[in-house]
Structure formats: C-alpha cells, structure tokens
Design goal:
The complex is a heterodimer. By secondary structure, chain A is α+β, with helices and mostly antiparallel strands. Chain A has seven helices and nine strands. Chain A has a five-stranded mixed beta sheet with strand order 2-1-3-8-9, with helices on one face. In chain A, β1, α4 and β2 form a beta-alpha-beta unit. In chain B, strands 2-3-6-7-9 form a five-stranded mixed barrel. Chain B has a two-stranded antiparallel ribbon with strand order 4-5.
C-alpha cells in the first residue's frame, strides 16, 4: 500500500526539485541554443540563463522568483492502493504545498481573484490543482508537479475544418506575435498545442503537451510528428530570439496533442512553457520506494487510446 | 557589450553615458513595487510611512521568493514582472518619487518613455532572461525593510533591498527615450511579417481582426 507519509515526503521533494533544478532535456536544449545563436544580444542572454540554471541547482535557489501556480498531475495505476484513499492523498498534497511555500521558499502567488487576499501558502480554492489519469495493470502512482506562471503565452481559437493546416499555422504565428515581443513568453519555450475536443479539453491538452512531454520527443503518429517539426522550424524562422531580440532561438520544441472534435469544428489552444521549465516526476511503489525522474511519461498509449476496448 | 557599474543614488551624469543595449550593474538600495503598492499609493492615496525617495532613486517591478525566519527575511530568488501593466501610474510615480531608473520585465512603449520617462530623466533597465532569479537573488546583501506586508501579502508588499552588483541589466530605454525593444521589433518584422503573406483570414474573425463592433465576425 502507498502510504500518506510517502505521498507527503514525495510532494515536498518534488516542489524543491521542480523549483531549483532544470530538467536535463531543457538544460541540453538551452546549451544547444546558446551555441546556435549568432546574434550578440540574445547569445549573451542565453549564456546568462545557463549560468542561472547552475547557480539555482547548486545553491537551491528558485530559478525564477515567479514560482508559478504549483499544481499536480497524478497517474494512478489501476492496481494501486492508497492509505486513506484519495481524500487523504489530496490532503497530503495540500499540506506539502503549504510547507514547501515556506521552506524552499516558493512565492505565495495564489490569491482570491476578486479581493486579492493572499494567504501566503499557495493553497486555496482549486489550489493546488490536481489532475488525474489512469494506467492499466500497474500498482504504482506517478506524481508530477509543474510550476508555471500564467500571465502570458496562451490563447484559444475556434477554427473550422476548411481553415485547414494553414489556419493552424496562422494561429500559431499569431500567438508568437502576441507573446514573443519583449520576451513576454520568457522564450525559448516549449509550445504545446491542443487540437480538437471541446474547448476545455483542447485548452487542457495544450497545457499538458507543453508541460508533460520532454524537449526532443516527438508524437508517435508520424503525421503529427512531421507537423510538430514543421511548426518548430517555422517559429525559429520568425526572427524572434530570447527576450524578443532579433535571433533564431525561441522555440525549444513543439508538442501537438489531439482529441476527437465536433464534426463541424477544429478548436485549437496553445500554451508556451517558459525557459525555466519547472517540472519533476516521482513514481511511488507499494513497497515504500520512490523514484524521481525528469520525464513525466504522461502521454501513454493508454491515455492516447482511440478504440473501444 | 559595454558594461557599467553604478552606485545608487544614480546621478544624472551616470545616465547620460548609457545607451540602449548596454549592460548595467547596480549597487545600493532599491525598492520594489507592483499592483499592490501602486494601488495603495495612487488609488487609495495612502502615504508610505517614510520617504523612500531619500533612500533610493531606483525601483524594481517585481516580487521575490522570500523566506521568513523569526522576523528576518532571506531572499533566495528575484525576477521582474511585466512593467507595461503599470503604465497608468508612471506619470505620478516617477516625478513624485524622483525615480531615475525603473528595473523590470518587457519595458513600456516608446510613447510612454517619451511622455513619462524623458521629462523626468528616467531610464528603463530590463532584467535578462527572463527568469534569472538565482543570479539576481545572489546579489541581494540584505532585506532592509518590508512595507505593507500585512495589507498586501508577501508577493505584493514593498521590499527595500540592499544590493551589490545587481545585474546584468540591459538598457532598454536611455535618457533620450530610445527603446531597444522597439528597435528589435522593427528588425524582426522584416522576417516575421512575410510569413503571413499567403495566409487567409480565418473563417470566423475575432474582435481585433474586425474592429468595428457593428459588423459581424463572419
């Protein structure tokens, strides 16, 4: 059985690692981009960002003081058993978030949206958000935390089938134009695109595509993988570099996820995940062991299934 | 890139030497401000408990990640927040507080620099990245004070910080009101705008693509 103590301890460590340690895939991408960039200004900044990753990890300082809106993505094995059930599980995640806000520290970003009252603990109504998916035939639980800011770099649009691939490309460029100027998206970013589904599902998929796949992976559907690659090249030929300076290195990767849509529509959403990609995953086993890793492995073939089992 | 190491309070003659794209490091006292602070000062007309202008002429649009241990504060990381959101307060804030440099993220428009910054001899310094929290956090020697912590919370309070070689910061707007971001935008448009040339307007338009509210979006 997976215990509440195990859940709490894992969540505290996840928050610390996410805030202070850049995932290896992002770090490698940043090194490659700093080498590629030819323009003086953006190259100088890219080099500084590499240095920032190193200081943050060595001195356990948050990479960015906007530590975002800490949240959890949970994948539950169908055979997993939880001490106290899911009510106890969620209680541990909330307790760990409050504790980590003080101990790391994280910035207490979560406020009441109207009164603006801040309880200084990142806990509140729908905070931290917890999303769930399932995995057949296994008895572990995966917990991923993501700390992402949320002011800039996302948009939604209802496109129609005859807008076609060109409509997708235009919307993709529109969002770049909206948020790469002045570096508002904090590029280089991983761009997540959700295509299809209902409005809420497409927005959710875009967020998950941006935050829960590693830089460098491509969609197993080769047609989608080709489109991901084409869009990445398109973004990096736009002229934008880091901070909205003229350059060639602004898109680390593009991740596209689809959901079956209404026959008359093609809704699309885009999220930009900034250069300080705060994410970390742990697998909790029933024997009490915990394994931390960079790759969330969120998009399993089961999660992407299309058939009737 | 040209580097400048300056002490706070900044002197006018220091600022005349700076050009957009130069790199600056600051040492001395700076104070933070964002929605909460400006709301207190200019919407609610509440005065600060003391004259911050006599201590510093540099402000920072940000809020830090901060730890409180028995009444002492440690800032591990600090990064800027986007400055153009506070434009409407700058006409009063810059002269009243004799601000000579605003540090932040993403700057303001060139028009705002001409209207509010140039007449006051104020420059705009952009943090780098964005998201260089550890680099900037390291340059904070001491938290001198926090104002309106109870009223505004940790993320909106005004923090008074003693910094040493706080940087690198990039000059986004100099005393003449030039804007690095606007210069870069013009360069980028040469490669960005042609990408749209063969593209149709989507079947259903949105407000913005159709500016006249009496027209339909189809």
């Amino acid at each position: 059985m997976i215990t509440t103590e195990q859940v709490y301890r894992t969540a505290v460590e996840l928050h610390l690692q996410a805030a202070t340690k850049i995932p290896n895939d992002v770090k490698q991408a940043m090194h490659a981009m700093a080498n590629e960039e030819q323009e003086t200004l953006p190259r100088y900044v890219l080099e500084q960002m590499k240095l920032n990753y190193d200081i943050a990890q060595r001195e356990k300082r948050p990479m960015c003081s906007d530590t975002g809106l800490p949240r959890f993505y949970v994948k539950i094995g169908n055979e997993a058993q939880l001490e106290g059930g899911f009510v106890a599980f969620e209680r541990e995640l909330r307790r760990a978030t409050e504790y980590s806000t003080h101990s790391i520290p994280l910035r207490p970003n979560r406020v009441d949206p109207l009164t603006r009252k801040d309880y200084n603990n990142n806990v509140g109504s729908h905070a931290p958000t917890v999303d769930y998916t399932f995995e057949p035939n296994v008895d572990w639980i995966d917990i991923t935390t993501v700390h992402k800011g949320g002011l800039f770099g996302s948009d939604y649009r209802m496109l129609f089938p005859s807008d076609g691939i060109q409509g997708i490309k235009k919307f993709y460029l529109d969002v770049i134009g909206e948020f790469f100027r002045r570096g508002m998206s904090c590029q280089p970013v991983t761009i997540g695109i959700g295509l299809g589904g209902t409005k809420d599902v497409c927005v959710r998929l875009a967020k998950e595509a941006a935050c829960l796949r590693i830089v460098g992976d491509s969609h197993p559907d080769t047609a989608l993988a080709d489109l991901e690659f084409e869009l990445k090249e398109l973004g990096n030929s736009s002229g934008f570099g880091i901070m909205g300076f003229k350059g060639t290195q602004s898109v680390m990767d593009v991740h596209l996820e689809t959901a079956y849509a209404h026959t008359g529509g093609m809704p699309i959403a885009i999220h930009h995940f900034c250069l300080a990609q705060r994410r970390c995953t742990a697998r909790l086993f029933p024997d009490g062991s915990i394994k931390f890793r960079d790759d969330p492995q969120w998009f399993t073939s089961y999660y992407r299934r299309t058939s009737v089992e | 890139m040209k580097e400048h190491y300056l002490s706070i309070p900044l002197r006018n003659e220091d600022l005349f030497e700076l050009e957009v794209g130069d790199v600056v490091f600051l040492s001395g006292i700076i104070y933070t401000g964002r929605e909460g602070v400006y709301n207190q000062l200019f919407d609610k007309n509440i005065e600060l408990p003391y004259s911050i202008a006599s201590m510093s002429n540099v402000t920072f649009h940000c809020s830090p990640a901060i730890r409180e241990d028995n009444g002492t504060y440690n800032i591990s990381s600090v990064t800027a927040t986007a400055s153009f959101r506070f434009t409407k307060y700058m006409d009063r804030f810059l002269p009243q507080f004799n601000v000579k440099a605003v540090v932040g993220k993403s700057g303001l428009t060139a028009e705002s620099y001409r209207r509010y910054f140039v007449p006051n001899g104020t420059i705009y310094l952009s943090t780098i990245g964005y998201g260089a929290g550890a680099i900037y956090g390291k340059s904070i020697k001491q938290v001198k004070d926090v104002v309106w912590k109870e009223e505004l919370g940790l993320a909106q309070a005004m923090w008074v910080l003693d910094v040493e070689q706080f940087g690198p910061l990039i000059v986004e707007s100099d005393v003449r009101g030039s804007s690095l971001f606007e210069q870069q935008n013009q360069k980028i448009n040469q490669s960005f705008l042609p990408l749209f040339e063969e593209m149709d307007i989507p079947i259903l338009k949105r407000i913005g693509e159709e500016l006249n509210a009496k027209n339909e979006m189809v």
